């Protein structure tokens, strides 16, 4: 495991007698896709359960990010993973909510996965009206910014899925847009596609202050992680840390396991044309 591990996101483990197995071996829980009247998915524990041990891990990530370079900490931060189903989007949203709540600063969460966006689903927002509309039609930023129930958090969703995402993300307009976003917000968290699935994250990695790689326990293979690191390095991306998800521990009285591996099952099909890993 890389030395600059920002933290491990631990999951509350239910007693063996309380577990139910899905056919694919993932833990099934009654809260996996639940939403309340806020529209925010139950997996966003930093919103629904800010005082739990899991939420505290996200605060640790926030603190460690500020320590990366204390005099000039990264403020434009991309999150990715080697492959799909490693928890990157859930981690991105939880981190953004935690930063908005605890720092009392203006935080922007951007969905730059223009092929298989999911940020809007986790926050109960419409996908339409977002990044792709700015890049293709010149829509003004203020017309597509979205607010949530999470205080101090603004969201820029992906917008309509374009036919040429790599070209859009590598355009001069995208470079200028990221500069503008950084000037307008205290921190910008960018959710990106898996590194080895498509080239988009390499393009974005060179434009942000730093990249955080999400690694899931018992899922991410070392070979895949090594290839992802090599790819990002060759793309001149600055890897500032790693987040380990899916670490389980038992807390008496809890019957739920927050499964950070939920919700990414469609990536493999969408990126079927990409290289085998």
From TrEMBL:
Domain of life of the organism encoding this protein: Bacteria
Enzyme Commission no: 2.7.10.2
UniProt xrefs under CDD domains: BY-kinase
Disordered: annotated segments: 1-22
MF terms in GO: ATP binding; non-membrane spanning protein tyrosine kinase activity
Catalysed reaction, written as an equation: L-tyrosyl-[protein] + ATP = O-phospho-L-tyrosyl-[protein] + ADP + H(+)
Key words, A-Z: ATP-binding, Kinase, Nucleotide-binding, Transferase, Tyrosine-protein kinase
Domain AAA: 86-218
Biased segments, Basic and acidic residues type: 9-22
One cellular-component annotation, GO: plasma membrane
A matching Pfam family: AAA_31
Family statement drawn from the similarity comment of this UniProt entry: Belongs to the CpsD/CapB family.
Protein name as it appears in the record: non-specific protein-tyrosine kinase
Species name: Candidatus Desantisbacteria bacterium CG23_combo_of_CG06-09_8_20_14_all_40_23
């Amino acid at each position: 495991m890389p030395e600059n591990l920002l933290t491990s996101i631990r999951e509350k483990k239910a007693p063996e007698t309380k577990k139910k197995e899905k056919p694919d071996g993932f833990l099934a829980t009654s809260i996996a896709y639940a939403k309340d009247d806020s529209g925010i998915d139950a997996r966003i524990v930093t919103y629904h359960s800010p005082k739990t041990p899991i939420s505290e891990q996200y605060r640790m990530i926030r603190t460690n990010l500020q320590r990366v370079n204390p005099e000039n900490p990264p403020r434009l931060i991309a999150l990715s993973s080697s492959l799909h189903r490693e928890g990157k989007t859930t981690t991105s949203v939880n981190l953004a909510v935690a930063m908005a709540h605890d720092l009392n600063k203006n935080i922007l969460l951007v969905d730059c996965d223009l092929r298989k966006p999911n940020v809007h689903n986790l926050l109960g927002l419409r996908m339409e009206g977002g990044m792709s509309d700015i890049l293709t039609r010149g829509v003004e930023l203020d017309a597509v910014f979205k607010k949530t129930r999470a205080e101090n958090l603004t969201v820029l969703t992906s917008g309509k899925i374009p036919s040429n995402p790599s070209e859009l993300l590598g355009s001069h307009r995208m470079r200028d847009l990221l500069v503008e976003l950084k000037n307008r917000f205290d921190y910008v968290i960018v959710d990106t596609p898996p590194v080895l699935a498509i080239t988009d994250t390499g393009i974005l990695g060179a434009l942000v202050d730093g990249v955080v790689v999400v690694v899931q326990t018992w899922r991410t293979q070392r070979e895949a992680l090594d290839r992802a690191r090599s790819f990002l390095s060759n793309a001149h991306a600055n890897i500032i840390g790693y987040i380990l998800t899916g670490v389980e521990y038992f807390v008496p009285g809890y019957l739920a396991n927050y499964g950070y591996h939920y919700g990414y099952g469609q990536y493999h099909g969408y990126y079927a044309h990409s290289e085998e890993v």
